[in-house]
């Protein structure tokens, strides 16, 4: 008998912990989300029916699950931050969030998480928000399958799509961000994963890292942003299997690495960028199995970089393979495939017998003297490149691939 | 005058060399367009041909033609005709036939594969370059009596415009590397029709983003209607000045 009572008690507590469901909608007793949040207890679920809700700033300071049925529209009326989450384990699922306020003093967002843990934000559609999803001091949060869109024109008057600040162990998966300032922004964020997102047409960067260590991003696509991805002042960032495409413009890069160290760049595709990868002050970086295709410069390595290992990559159809600004070379190139390689392989070990020098004379001239770009694609520059191939003088002596592959690496 | 132009044109267009030139241009442009999957890349490869082959052929062909027609010119001069109109007929005849060869050889494929602003600018620049180098060749030919020297001069001129001038620009750029040279470069580019033509076409292609700050300044200038007009007027000036001087020389020349 005692046992039965214990089991019954346990069951009751178990059911209790599921909480109640509160229905919100024009046809239900509770008409507004604000009321629902006020009357709800920790662990309750608020089910919001389809409709238009203009309720100003909704502050969630209890552990609630908010689920939208058939995408109810929450309108910020261009004045308010829409959801402010100030409790842990909150779930926001299936809402359309429109027109958040914009401000130069406060970072208004569609959904903002303040100092909370294990918040889940999924399946939402955000349109015309200042910041899209904003996390500060957040831990172990999940941001999944959201669509963010904005039509910003100027960098100064726009916010980031997914903005994370001083957070840890975040998981950002399957989101699309379009037309914000930065698609995804990380500052002081650690141990996080960014996976299978698509960011396109953002004004500044598709993905922006500042002072964020031990993070991984993989299987993402960065298409047509001001610049694809910028990783700055960070350590131990893994960049795996991403697509960097069509970041084309005067100051556009596929991937910008500045003051970063101990990182891996593997399995990525860089296609049609003005500069595929730009490295400045970077150290201890391994790059392999990447494809560089139809870029202006496949890679620009400034002389301030050291211990960059570039091996087993394919360089195809780039105007310039490598650009650099000095003669000091502390980096190694090995076993890459270069489509411009004109050597031979007498012993048939699939590697060319003479080294390949990926830096052309003209790219050196341009680096030292930018107005020389006026002679771009003129007869004399191609002539200079050819003579330089036979007698290297201006190009760095040590920047060469000693074992260039005769066929594509993979 | 019309009669002479007509006669010269039929004479040139019937010549086997002219036909081969047209066919070679036609074949190259068709292969280039069908080889590249991207029509823009085809244009870039064509650009090299336009900037190197077209001026060379225009220069050499016109120079040799003038020297070979020396007797015909003497005959015409003995007739009651103005020397000015004789010389102009020769210029117009050569210019029209070489432009025609260019338009058929390169213009036609470009119009088929790439009918847009870039294609049109490419055709206009190429045609203008043909005419400019006819005018320059005529000037060289009228100055020098000796045929071998004249042809040598034509080759030197071609080398100057397609190679030496750019080398000189590069030299200047390094000598004055401490000064902001982006804007003066616009002026410098006007001093060589080949450079001007190349810059005009490159700025139309999306590859211009690679040209950085210099490209941006060029685009600011040549991107506007005014800049574009100035560029084309400059190219026209490149036709008119040699033509004026060669006509003046021909009128006074003791044949």
CATH architecture of chain A: 3 Solenoid
Largest interface: A-B, 25 and 35 residues
Mean pLDDT across every amino acid position of chain B: 90
| Relative strand content of chain A | 35-45%
CATH fold title of chain A: Pectate Lyase C-like
Bulk shape of chain B: globular
- Helix coverage percent of residues of chain A? 10-25%
The percent of residues in helical segments of chain B reads: over 70%
Order of SSEs of chain B, N→C? HHHHHHHHHHH
Averaged pLDDT of chain A: 89
**CATH classification, class level of chain A:** Mainly Beta
Q: State the domain count of chain B.
A: 1
Quick structural overview:
Chain A is mainly beta and 410 residues long. Chain A is built from 4 helices and 39 strands. In chain A, 11% of the residues lie in helices and 39% in strands.
Task: Summarize the structure in words.
The complex is a heterodimer of chains A (410) and B (255). By secondary structure, chain A is mainly β. Chain A has a single domain (42-390), classed as Pectate Lyase C-like, CATH 2.160.20. In chain A, the strands form three sheets. In chain A, strands 1-2-5-8-11-14-17-20-23-26-29-32-35-38 form a 14-stranded parallel sheet, with helices on one face. A 13-stranded parallel sheet of chain A has the order 3-6-9-12-15-18-21-24-27-30-33-36-39, with no helix packed on it. In chain A, strands 4-7-10-13-16-19-22-25-28-31-34-37 form a twelve-stranded parallel sheet. Chain A is elongated and about 90 Å long. The mean pLDDT of chain A is 89. Chain B is mostly helical and 255 residues long. Chain B has one domain. Chain B is 86% helix and 0% strand. Chain B is built from eleven helices and no strands.
């Amino acid at each position: 008998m005692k046992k039965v009572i214990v089991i019954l008690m346990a069951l009751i507590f178990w059911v209790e912990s599921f909480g109640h469901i509160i229905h919100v909608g024009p046809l239900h007793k509770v008409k507004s989300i604000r009321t629902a949040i006020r009357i709800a207890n920790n662990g309750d679920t608020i089910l919001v029916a389809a409709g238009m809700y203009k309720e100003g700033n909704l502050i969630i300071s209890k552990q609630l699950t908010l689920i939208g049925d058939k995408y109810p529209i929450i309108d910020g009326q261009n004045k308010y931050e829409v959801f402010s989450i100030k409790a842990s384990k909150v779930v926001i699922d299936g809402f359309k969030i429109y027109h958040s306020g914009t401000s130069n003093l406060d970072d208004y967002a569609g959904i903002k998480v303040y100092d909370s843990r294990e918040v889940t934000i999924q399946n939402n559609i955000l349109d015309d928000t200042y910041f899209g999803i904003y996390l500060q001091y957040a831990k172990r949060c999940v941001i999944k399958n959201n669509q963010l869109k904005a039509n910003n024109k100027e960098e100064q008057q726009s916010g980031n799509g997914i903005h994370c600040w001083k957070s840890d162990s975040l998981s950002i998966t399957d989101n699309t961000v379009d037309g914000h300032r930065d698609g995804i922004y990380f500052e002081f964020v650690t141990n996080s994963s960014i996976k299978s997102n698509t960011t396109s047409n953002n004004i500044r960067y598709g993905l922006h890292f500042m002072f964020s260590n031990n993070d991984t991003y993989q299987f993402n696509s960065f298409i047509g942003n001001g610049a694809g991805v910028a990783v700055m002042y960070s350590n131990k960032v893994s960049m795996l299997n991403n697509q960097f495409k069509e970041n084309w413009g005067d100051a556009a890069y596929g991937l910008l690495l500045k003051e970063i160290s101990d990182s891996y760049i593997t399995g990525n595709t860089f296609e049609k960028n003005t500069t595929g990868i730009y490295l400045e002050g970077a150290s201890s970086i391994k790059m392999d199995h990447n494809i560089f295709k139809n870029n202006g410069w496949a890679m620009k390595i400034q002389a301030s970089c050291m211990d960059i290992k570039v091996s087993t990559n394919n360089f195809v159809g780039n105007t310039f393979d490598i650009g650099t600004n000095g003669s000091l070379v502390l980096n190694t190139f090995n076993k890459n495939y270069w489509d411009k390689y004109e050597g031979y392989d007498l012993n048939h070990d699939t590697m060319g017998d003479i080294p390949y020098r990926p830096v052309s004379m003209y790219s050196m001239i341009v680096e030292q003297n930018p107005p020389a770009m006026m002679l771009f694609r003129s007869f004399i520059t191609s002539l200079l490149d050819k003579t330089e191939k036979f007698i290297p003088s201006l190009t760095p002596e040590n920047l060469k691939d000693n074992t260039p592959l005769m066929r594509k690496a993979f | 005058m019309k009669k002479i132009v007509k006669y010269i044109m039929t004479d040139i267009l019937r010549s086997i060399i002219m036909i081969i030139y047209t066919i070679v241009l036609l074949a190259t442009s068709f292969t280039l367009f069908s080889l590249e999957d991207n029509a823009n890349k085809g244009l870039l490869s064509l650009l090299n041909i336009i900037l190197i082959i077209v001026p060379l052929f225009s220069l050499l062909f016109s120079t040799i033609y003038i020297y070979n027609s020396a007797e015909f010119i003497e005959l015409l001069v003995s007739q009651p005709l103005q020397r000015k109109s004789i010389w102009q007929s020769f210029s117009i005849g050569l210019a029209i036939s070489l432009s025609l060869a260019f338009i058929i050889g390169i213009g036609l494929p470009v119009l088929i594969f790439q009918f847009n602003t870039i294609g049109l600018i490419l055709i206009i620049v190429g045609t203008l370059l043909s005419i400019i180098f006819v005018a320059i060749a005529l000037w060289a030919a009228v100055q020098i009596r000796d045929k071998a020297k004249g042809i040598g001069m034509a080759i030197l001129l071609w080398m100057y415009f397609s190679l030496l001038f750019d080398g000189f620009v590069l030299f200047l750029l390094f000598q004055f590397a401490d000064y902001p040279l982006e804007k003066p470069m616009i002026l410098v580019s006007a001093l060589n029709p080949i450079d001007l033509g190349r810059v005009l076409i490159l700025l139309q292609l999306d590859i211009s983003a690679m040209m950085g700050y210099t490209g941006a300044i060029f685009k600011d200038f040549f991107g506007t209607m005014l800049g574009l007009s100035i560029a084309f007027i400059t190219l026209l000036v490149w036709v008119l000045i040699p033509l004026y001087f060669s006509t003046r020389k021909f009128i006074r020349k003791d044949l």
